[in-house]
Amino acid sequence: MAGTLDAMNVSEILPFLGHTEQSAGLSSLLLSAGFDVAQMQGRVQRGHGVGHLELKPLGIELAFQFHTDYKETYGTPEDEGKAVLSGVFAYDKAKKDRKAYNGPVPFTRGPLRNRSDALREFGVPYHTEQDDDEIDWDYWFKGGVQVGAFYRPDTTIEHLSSSIAIKTTLERLNRPHTNSD
Question: Is 15 exposed, middle or buried (0-12, 13-18, 19+ CB in 10 A)?
Fold first, then answer.
């Protein structure tokens, strides 16, 4: 069962990746955040587009892909419904209307502050995006989840993402989607 809005962390949300608002657990999670999928931005009625739910008191953002787009991009959702949870973002620093994420980081033994920490905890990334000498982000597969670390120019972590891998990424890597990573 998901925690309440004041105690929720990324690890509690990850099991709901690929599920829709029709999932009892995800529905409970959304209700604890006071969220109604029908009010999400995007083309809800036609089942296309992307929507986001910002849990500002927690420093977390949830990304939803509407069912038609999700099927094309990721595959078959775990259940029926309009909005499929496709990603979770945790932000390192507070902003004027959003607190920093202070909860546990999935697949690690402790907090991640910079790229060196991420490489130590996650290992060698399957993809690194670099522009000139500046590392922008790294991606890994952990526990069947695509994990990303996005960096500032000094390689401190700006935010972390946990998401469903896109079908073309899995095909390019000749890799099935499994929970054994």
Answer: middle
pLDDT digits (tens, 9 = 90+) for 143-170: 889 999 999 999 999 999 999 988 777 7
Instruction: Give 122's contacts (C-beta < 8 A, 6+ positions apart).
Output: 107, 108, 138, 140, 142, 147, 149
* Token duo for residue 7: 């105690």
Higher pLDDT, 74 or 124: 124
Q: Between vectors from CA 46 to CA 45 and to CA 50, what angle results, nearest 5°?
A: 90
